[in-house]
Specification:
It is built from ten helices and no strands. By secondary structure, it is an all-alpha fold. The chain has one domain. Helix 1 packs antiparallel against helix 4, helix 4 runs antiparallel to helix 6 and helix 6 runs antiparallel to helix 7. GO terms for molecular function: metal ion binding; metallopeptidase activity.
């Protein structure tokens, strides 16, 4: 497989990235509505229209910069779907479930992209070479969704993992833990800049890939070879 131009790279990544962050946010909103909070629904955020969810920084600028950095992984975020804590029937418990819905949606999408990759590979072997872009999108979709899932499950507010942990901790401990939230993004950036974020994420990403990759039909070595093509 030959090296891709920047335009080709962007074409491969744009749909998986937009779907990964959009479905993630919509999942929060749907689960919140199920548990009694209609805030996201009333604001028109329960839609797969990416325009409603695009954050200029997290959806466009950050992923584009990550693509331009050789060997870097790609990630981004959308505008958070608003959830009114007090509208939930059981606020502490329900907020944990709402938070978990986003990463679970990414895991589901990783499996769906794996199925697309497997189908595309079969068609390529049959000589249908025009399915190569779908194969690359499938691999990109697996990668970005697993990264977003693992990243968001880190126990650091305001990430989903932090909200899940706050929801299951006893009340006083949850309140103390939630005080980290104003500094959560700065902590995340510090981990990224120092390289510690990759050191934390990579073993977890590899573990989830071990479960997802058999669905795609790819061995880890082949998967990582294609990822290198997609991010170089």
């Amino acid at each position: 497989m030959s090296q891709l131009s920047l335009i080709q790279q962007l074409a491969v990544w744009v749909v998986p990235v937009l779907l990964a962050i959009t479905v993630h946010e919509v999942s929060h909103g749907f689960v919140a509505r199920y548990y009694g909070d209609t805030t996201a629904y009333m604001l028109g955020r329960l839609t797969l229209n990416p325009v409603k969810h695009i954050d200029p920084l997290g959806t466009i600028l950050v992923p584009a910069i990550m693509l331009l950095l050789p060997g870097s992984f790609v990630f981004g975020w959308a505008k958070p779907v608003p959830v009114s804590f007090n509208n939930l029937r059981n606020p502490m418990r329900d907020m944990a479930v709402v938070a978990a819905a986003g990463p679970l949606s990414n895991l589901t999408m990783a499996f769906l992209w794996a199925l697309l990759a497997r189908l595309s590979m079969g068609l390529l072997k049959d000589g249908y070479l025009f399915f190569e872009p779908l194969l690359l999108m499938g691999i990109a979709g697996i990668y970005i969704n697993i990264i977003l899932m693992v990243l968001n499950l880190l126990p650091l507010p305001p990430l989903d993992g932090g909200r899940v942990l706050a929801g299951i901790l006893p009340g006083p401990m949850a309140m103390q833990f939630s005080r980290i939230e104003p500094y959560g993004f700065m902590i995340l950036i510090a981990l990224l800049v120092t390289g510690l974020l990759g050191w934390i994420l990579f073993p977890l990403i590899s573990l989830v890939l071990f479960v997802v990759l058999p669905v795609s039909g790819f061995a880890p070595q082949g998967f990582w070879q294609i990822i290198q093509i997609l991010i170089q």
